Amino acid sequence: MASKKLRVVHYLNQFFGGLGGEDQAHRGPQIVDGPTGPGRAIQSLLAEKGEVVATAICGDDYFGERIDGAADEIVQLIRRYDPDIVIAGPAFEAGRYGVACGAICKKVQEALNIPAVTGMYGENPGVDLFHKDVYIVQTGDSVRTMDEAITRMVNLAMKQAAGHKIGKPAEEGYFPRGILVNEESDRSGAARAVAMLLDKLKGQPFEPEVLQPTHYPVAPAPGIKDIGSSTIALVTDGGLVPAGNPDGIESKNATRFGGYGFKDIDSLAAADYDVNHSGYATVFARQNPNRLIPVDAMREIEREKGIGKLHERFYSTTGVATRLEMARKMGRAIAAELKSEGVSGAILTST
After folding, report:
1. Is 77 helix (H, G, I), strand (E, B) or coil?
2. Domain residues of the chain, as ranges?
3. CB half-sphere exposure, 226, CA atoms < 13 A
4. The model scores a pTM over 0.70
5. Over the stretch 327-346, which tens digit does the pLDDT of each residue have?
6. What stretches of 134-202 adopt beta strand conformation (E)?
7. What is the distance, to the nearest Å, from the Cα of residue 307 to the centroid of all Cα atoms in its chain?
8. 63-75 pLDDT, tens per residue?
9. How do strand 273-275 and strand 240-242 relate by DSSP bridges?
10. Residue 290, class by beta-carbon neighbours within 10 Å (0-12 exposed, 13-18 middle, 19+ buried)?
11. Which residues of 167-194 are buried (b: 16+ CB within 10 A; e: fewer)?
12. Domain 6-172 - what CATH class?
């Protein structure tokens, strides 16, 4: 009796799904029969063991602007095909795509109770957000590693679908999920720690038993040589916005920022501002917006010649749950505007 073919649904963004580039990033979810783009390589590896029955496609901007809602929409499309597993991506270093792949895999597991797997480069923000919830295969930073990424994803997907034991991250090629498994060893913890230390001192490879978080250093900017003649700007991730939030800055997982003028104003008035931030108690900032953007204190410093001039436009966004890639993007954009306006330096206030 022939074994049942594995039914696979594949998820792609607008580019890999053949809809177009950034000009099509606004496209909403859709699903088509059979494999598309990289899905053909998945089908080739599955051979007679499985079939890519459909490909779900969504634009990166559409998904990024409504993550939970878009994931729900896509899961409803996927549900119609009664899949055994979902494969998303790989997304490589593309941040918006990676977040979408991770969110969809997590939602599929929760809503459809079937396994899901995706693939990303280590610096993709989707790794930080979803590595504890989803198997994320490690890939290179670009499509140059597509073949290897697809092979690892398919192999891991087949193991999940068959209910086989999944090996260690180093064996299977996925990012560690923070799951600790008890194992017996013939050496004590002290002996193993000393052995790792000796290997490290000798420059030899070793594998730590507890993984440390990855931090990406940021080189500090050169200091301001003459603060007395400098122009200083105020920037916050505390969610301060003009009343009515005209730019629609999100209360969490922000994708945009705003710049707001206060020319000839010595202190920000509570009636003119609001705080749109879900990560802290905002009552004190609402009572006195100068707690986030200290215009009153900076005006005093300006009058006392402590700085040359206060830049009469502040920038604001929301920091809570904001993806690393998006934070970098907004930071670069704000810095570019400040430099173009002749600002010497900025004070970043938080919560």
Report:
1. helix
2. 6-172, 227-349
3. 5
4. no
5. 888 999 999 999 999 999 99
6. 135-138
7. 37
8. 988 888 999 999 9
9. antiparallel
10. buried
11. eebeeebbbeeeeeeeeeeeeeeeeeee
12. alpha beta
